[in-house]
Amino acid sequence: MEGFLPGPWWQIWFAISLPVIIYGIYKLNELIKNKRDLLPLLAVAGAYIFILSSLKLPSVTGSCSHPTGTGLAAILFGPAISAVLGLIVLLYQALFLAHGGLTTLGANVFSMGIAGPVIAFVIYKVCTKAGLNFYMAVFLACALGDLATYVVTSIELALAFPAQTGGVVTSFKAFATIFAVTQVPLAIIEGAITVLIFKYVIQVKSDVLVKLDVLSEVGLRKIKEMTT
Amino acid sequence: MKLEIIVAVIVLIFTAQFLYISSTTDAEYGGADGEAEGVIEELTGGTYEPIADPLWEPPSGEIESLLFSLQAAIGALVIGYYFGYYKGKKQPA
Fold it and tell me: Cβ of B72 and A50 within 8 Å?
């Protein structure tokens, strides 16, 4: 939505997103230098965002939207690195597809690259701490992280365009009706597909999950016993 | 196989939802972005002018879907390579 955030809002979202991106690049550099064996999985996390955010899916509201794919990166590498991966995809779509936009990039990085991944990351950690089944935790984290992105997008727009009567709350309801409601089925699909990705990572290269502190040795062994 | 079956069922329900709604309503399946732009117009009484235009726009729907497919293809290539590589590595020749 190029040009659809007036000042000072687009500057505010740039100012909020920029420090996270800088910290994310710093973390990414550390990872590239010190943990080279994790790079293939980093590529998978980035590629996953590429695929999912290119798929505009038809939803129950009779309009289309796309999943974000950021939950995978958030669980594996944390929100800061996810923000950088999200930025790459958002730049691709803003430059080549007139989708998203450059003036709105700060706001989009915040909703898709930061808010969604933070929610996904926190939900994953809380669920696994609470002893929930690993795949259920992945599903909830990714689905709710996806949904959070669009709730935050609605908040961003509502703040910039408060209704004359009812203000921000009324506009939030109007934007959320479009974005968040459309997103619910898509978020469920994203959660489900991401669960499969994790299942296959465990099958082919489970040691990286322990290295990334996604799973403990014990937790991993339990999942393997369960599925074989 | 259990997880795959659950995911397949979810995808089937999603597809059924699409078939049902697209055949019972005259939904246009436009982008949610476009609808939000409509809401902005309503909220501001049509006075809002976008502060910027895209630097470049795909000249047609065909070019746009080409670039979107390219995006998905790049992603799929990387993910397929990863899983193929490590699966192959696990099985000694």
Answer: yes
